[in-house]
Write a structure and sequence with these properties.
Blueprint: H1 2-12, E1 23-28, E2 31-36, E3 42-43, H2 44-50, H3 54-73, H4 87-97, H5 104-113, E4 119-121, E5 130-132, E6 138-141, E7 148-150, H6 152-160, H7 165-179
Antiparallel strand pairs: 1-2, 3-5, 4-7, 5-6
Helix pairs in contact: 3-7
């Protein structure tokens, strides 16, 4: 997973407006670890608990829509074939590795969905993986080890669990306004 994250970050580094990790893999005395370039900012989760102003939150929403649109523009065929798997196939593999039972009905439906032409998504876009400046603008996005192909709604739904209903409504209103698409909270 570390090697995948390094590879993905290298491939999308110049295609995203926000800082993403520059990672090096290091080995010492049989241990494998990563070295990351520091990205300034506080997590959305922490700042949200402290209370974001309306202006800060709108800056975040606008930047998040930009990030999702930039990820959608990256052609998945620019990645090595092994990294082009759908996000649910990756999750299914992880469940198998850790011997966690899966919901076969859900995964069957999702695998059928993954045959569609999906876009590159972050895969773990939650409030702890988004770093913000004091003004609410995104300073960086981290943790790309779940990046894969799926519908951008997967990223939005993952984030929705960290936001309250009012924040989700504002985010979706901004998303719909900027993209011309109509995504509802019920869908997520």
């Amino acid at each position: 997973m570390l090697e995948k994250e390094i590879y993905v970050c290298e491939q999308i580094q110049d295609k995203i407006s926000f800082s993403i990790p520059k990672i090096r893999l290091a080995k010492q005395e049989g241990l494998v670890f990563t070295i990351h370039k520091f990205i300034e900012g506080e997590t959305l989760n922490r700042l949200n608990k402290e209370g974001l102003s309306d202006c800060q939150y709108m800056n975040f929403c606008r930047d998040l829509v930009t990030f999702i649109q930039e990820m959608r523009q990256i052609r998945s065929n620019s990645l090595d074939e092994q990294y082009q798997t759908g996000i649910f196939s990756q999750i299914e593999g992880m469940l198998g590795r850790y011997r966690i039972p899966k919901n076969k009905e859900l995964f069957g439906l999702v695998k059928d969905m993954e045959k569609q032409d999906f876009h590159l998504i972050h895969g773990d876009l939650n409030a702890n993986n988004i770093l913000l400046k004091k003004d609410g603008h995104i300073s960086g996005i981290i943790d790309f080890n779940m990046t894969g192909l799926s519908n951008y709604c997967f990223d939005l739904s993952k984030l929705a669990g960290y936001l309250d209903n009012e924040q989700n409504e504002i985010l979706l209103k901004e998303f719909n306004r900027r993209t011309g698409e109509n995504i509802s909270l019920d869908l997520l």
